[in-house]
Amino acid sequence: MTDSVPALEARRLWAAYHQQPVLEDISLSLPQGQWTAIVGPNGAGKSSLLNLMIGSLAPLRGELKILGQSAASQRRAGSIAYMAQQERMEWDFPISVRDTVLTGRYGLMRHDSLWQRLLPRQWANPSHRQAVEAALEAVDMADHAARPIGELSGGQKKRVMLARALAQQARILLLDEPLAGVDPPSETLILNTLERERSIGRTIIMVTHDMPSARLYADNVLLINRTLVGMGTPDEMLSDAMLARLAVGAREALPGGERVAA
Ligand SMILES: Nc1ncnc2c1ncn2[C@@H]1O[C@H](COP(=O)(O)OP(=O)(O)OP(=O)(O)O)[C@@H](O)[C@H]1O
Ligand SMILES: [Mg+2]
Fold first, then answer.
1. 41, 166, 232, 235 - which has most CB atoms within 10 Å?
2. Within this chain, do residues 96 and 126 fall inside the same structural domain, yes or no?
3. Which residues form the signal peptide (predicted)?
């Protein structure tokens, strides 16, 4: 697969729950290797867009390709790592921080040889453990690795779930509000980590309400309010005029046509 294949390509994409549309007629193309921030008000359909991208929500209409293939097949192939806005996790389950992050590698373990899968953990393929330790370091949770996840604060849990996504070393990182509820030092750490991921060619798609971070770090901003209100550089999209348009969900903001990130 060449790098010229878009990371994401949506054509006249619609999404709905119980036949009630929540996203309408979205067409866009995102190249690989860029950092895109998705911005929009509560209920705008941002998480739903990510659910389409991981194949857990089927389009009502239209087409979505991830790296040229269906979202579900790319998820299965390990090309997409995803961090949900709210993890459906059993936080009281007695599992350590380290083992929680390791669950991010389970899909990849399918590619290990059978004997590696059957070995005790300390003898298994070392790449899993290395990826987990690197991800824990990246979110500054290495010191908490042995603790049960149930003991962690909300911000720490968020950092662990981000580490779980990072440990997958996927080509595309889909992150739903990774900065919500984390303290300023952790936020800086996370943003620097994501910047490093981008610098090695990974594609980052991040839902956020944090405009200063989107302005500083993102290559592209998608403004979403049920439909695509705008797409462009942070300077273009995060202007007062565009944000005012976003608030009303102006459909006429960008009439028709496909939006392609620069
Ligand atoms: N599982 C579901 N069943 C029915 N309706 C849903 C479901 N999930 C989301 N919705 C509805 O779809 C719309 C878009 O929700 P979504 O979670 O995608 O918004 P969002 O932009 O991520 O909002 P927020 O900023 O609050 O996270 C909302 O009206 C929401 O109530
Ligand atoms: Mg959401």
1. 166
2. yes
3. none
